[in-house]
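Supplementary Note 3. Input sequence used for the single-chain structure prediction.
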Amino acid sequence: MDNDNYRESRVKHNSDPATAAIKWGAIVIIVGVIIYFLARYIVPLLPGA
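The predicted structure, written as discrete structure tokens, is reproduced below.
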């Protein structure tokens, strides 16, 4: 088996698990902040809320 090619392809396609975890963690935090903002400031402005 040629592990060097596998390692290079992982780095080339940016599929490092730590990078993916940081990226998805940031996405989750950003979506959470958006939902909090909507729930805190926008929803009370709607009629009947």
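The mean pLDDT is 84. Helices lie at 3-12, 17-42.
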